[in-house]
Amino acid sequence: MKIQEADAKTLLVAQGLPVPAWKLARTPDEVRAAAQGFFDAGNARVVIKAQVLVGGRGKAGGVKLAASAAEAAEVGARILGMDIKGITVRKVIVGGAVDIAKEYYLGAIIDRATRRIVLMASAEGGVEIEEVARVNPGAIHRVSADPELGLLAFQARGLGLAIGLRDSLLNQFVTIAQGLYATMKANDADLVEINPLAIVASAAPDGTTTQQLVCLDAKITLDDSGLARHPALESLRDRDEEDPTDERARKLGINFIRLDGTIGCMVNGAGLAMTTMDLVKHYGGEPANFLDVGGGARRETVSGAMELILDDPNVKAILVNIFGGITRGDEVAAGLISARASQSRAVPMVVRIVGTTAEEAARLLTEANLETAVSLYEAAEKAVAMAKAATR
Ligand code: GDP
Ligand code: MN
């Protein structure tokens, strides 16, 4: 689950990371009021940033500075309602603008190969890190944390040295890197990114300036499977931007991933779903989705899953493959029959149900004139033939 910059920053602050203050605003008037607060606090300029769950907002015109409350309201009016990569901007954050001396990149991800949290840093910050990885991969430095010991100070220091930080800035970097690691752990995040991590100059009342590292941008994705351990984080889900299909699938308790083929698959169990997709491909077809209805699926789940499949206009045939264990075959068959009765469009379908109450399922399906198959091979072959016939 992706969360907005403002929420990501809140999670960073909770781990003690340095993030300049900000306020959320949904209207130009709210932008004006927030900006006025920052000007009253002594800021010379404010920054207004679109809150959308995509990167590259700066380039798209979604990050702008303003030098007065009136200008901030104008800029806010321009950004609110703007379309950034297909998403309408509904909210912005307003913050005191800082003077950036240099921008770095700092990120933490889970490296599934080593099964560790890896920290990555680069002196080429501000720009999209994917671009740095492509053009100049040597500019990205990495260190992996031990799952028991965490990210040790010397490791963080090595990373900071590699991107050219020294003295006080290096010490600040160590604290920030360890805070990033702590943010990953505390929230079961699978990605935490600060880009830019910026050196900003701040003036003390006596006229001396010091350099500080601050997190100007924050991007966090949470591990969906870890959310059960953090019920409070569920409230950070941004329903404005969630794919409605994902939300429907989640409510039904279905694992659903859309693909670009023509054969809709409805299967129980992730492994069986993978096998089913493999066999579809084996017979020369392309799956339109991965769909696992889960264990013990009831008829409402089955008809909900059917609607998700049929919503994809590319679907030309449907393959249902159910291995009844806890799931009852007759329950699935009944779900399929009622879904067929009320479905939005007629798509050929072949059903294979084995295991618990398979005989009852077969009887129901035959009575309803639905095409069945005994083996998975037969089912996959039939589905591919149906899809081919439909596209011809
Ligand atoms: P992104 O484009 O979606 O990654 O959004 P960012 O939050 O990273 O903002 C893009 C760029 O805007 C940054 O790389 C900075 O150069 C600039 N920016 C963001 N905040 C400030 C600020 O407070 N002051 C100044 N001068 N520039 C800022
Ligand atoms: Mn950024």
Give an account of the 3D structure:
The chain has twelve helices and 19 strands. The chain has 392 residues and is α+β, with helices and mostly antiparallel strands. α10 links the parallel β17 and β18. It is elongated, with a radius of gyration of 26 Å. Bound molecules: guanosine-5'-diphosphate and manganese (II) ion. The site of manganese (II) ion (MN) has 2 residues, from loops.
Strand count, sense and barrel status of the largest sheet are: 7 strands, antiparallel
What structural category do the secondary elements indicate? alpha+beta
Estimated radius of gyration: 26 Å
Percentage of helical residues?
25-40%
Quick recap of the structure?
By secondary structure, the chain is α+β, with helices and mostly antiparallel strands. Helices cover 37% and strands 27% of the residues. The mean pLDDT is 95.
Protein topology:
Blueprint: E1 2-3, H1 5-14, E2 22-25, H2 28-40, E3 46-50, E4 63-66, H3 69-79, E5 83-84, E6 87-88, E7 92-96, E8 100-111, E9 116-122, H4 129-135, E10 140-144, H5 153-162, H6 167-187, E11 189-203, E12 209-215, E13 219-222, H7 244-252, E14 255-258, E15 263-267, H8 270-282, E16 289-292, H9 299-310, E17 317-324, H10 329-342, E18 349-355, H11 358-367, E19 371-372, H12 376-391
Parallel strand pairs: 15-17, 17-18, 18-19
Antiparallel strand pairs: 1-13, 2-7, 3-4, 3-7, 5-6, 8-9, 8-11, 9-10, 11-12, 11-13, 14-16
Bound molecules: guanosine-5'-diphosphate (GDP) and manganese (II) ion.
Guanosine-5'-diphosphate is lined by residues 47, 49, 55-58, 63, 97-98, 100, 103, 126, 195-196, 216-217.
